[in-house]
Amino acid sequence: MKTRIDKEDEYRVHILIVSPEQFPLPGSGSVEICILAIAEQLSQHHLVTVISPLFSHQTEETWRNPKLRIKRINGAKHPSEYSKAVIKTITQLEQPVDIIQVDNRPRSMSRIKEVFPSIPVVLFLHSLTFIPPQNRLITSSLQKADLIVTNSKSLKRAVLRRFPIQAKKITHIALGVDHFRFKPLHETEKQVYYELYGLPADRFHILYVGRLIPQKGISTLIRAIHHLKPSIKSKTHLIIAGRTKSKAYRNTLQELAQKLHVSVTFLGEIPHEQIHTLYPLASCMVCPSQKHEAFGLVNIEALSCGIPVIASSNGGMKEIITHGYNGFLVTNYKQAKNFTPHLSHLAQSAELLSLMGDNGRTTVLERYAWQVTAQKLESVYMNLL
User: Fold this and answer.
1) Contact 92, 16 (CB under 8 A)
2) According to the lineage, what is the superkingdom (predicted)?
3) Which CATH number is 187-367's, of 3.30.420.40, 3.40.50.2000, 3.90.1150.10, 2.60.120.10?
4) What global pTM score does this model have?
5) H helices of 241-349, where?
6) What is the average per-residue pLDDT within 146-171?
7) Which residues make Cβ contacts (< 8 Å) with residue 45, sequence separation at least 6?
8) How far apart are CA 213 and CA 219, in angstroms?
9) Is domain 14-176+369-384 classified as CATH 3.30.365.10?
10) 295 DSSP assignment
């Protein structure tokens, strides 16, 4: 693997991306996936350096290709200490940096901008998590950004509602998916993976992919399946894939499914490099989030694999799912029974499943690709420079 930039290697600009302090690269979280996918695309024409925290199983420096390097630094427990380490690393780079992108950490972005006032610094926001309302420190930090990029129109509107920022200072760029990897499978391939994951092959599979936390609405999904007619419910099987920090919460979900006689398999966290083999096994995916979802990367991954998505009608998911075309949007999503008719409709119509699955794949091919995401980001960055 190449470990340096040679003089004959040509690149337009040097883009530096700062990963949040607790995220390893590569990783299975949506932020890590997004950072690496965009960096790989940008590195086709530019030199890209990604700064990431160093974890015990990793090396300090990795070259993903001749123009993309990950520099891992000793992660500090406090974000401000991580910011200091990032700043020190930037000052020691051999190649001058032309633009800096900081993901999801407005205060870190602010600290970096203060040290490098002449370099355009961009904040790439993935959610509302780190921008609580009525916070003077965050307001001050956001105002220091040369540009703020959000992953959806919904997140852009939410930021503008919370903070007095000039609208021209913020733009939205949708995320993407590797549609060559996330694709439908042939029946013979499905049989192999059904056995691998220990799943019954002759069921109406309902898939959930994501973290196992209360606000994701998994208990709502279990109750929605419970409300299906017995003749339909008996043919369904719920697949839950995702990590959890609370065994107690997972046990609560298992107990609820058992109490309501909902057939379920808990697969735990599936590494992202393997998750594309799981989506096509499902008949549909459900994203029953009970709080704002800025984008929902799992939705376009599912659509890319040719399966319809039933999602809560909130946040950026409303920009991805077209009701009745590639899935269904549930407006009153706090009530489990409101998911049930859509599950029932899909479970009883193989023709509708196929049509919506095809439409979902078309949606992705037309609108969501990492190449498109990177091209839009590149255009924005060139304008800044």
Assistant:
1) no
2) Bacteria
3) 3.40.50.2000
4) 0.92
5) 247-259, 272-275, 297-304, 317-320, 340-347
6) 92
7) 11, 12, 378
8) 10
9) no
10) -
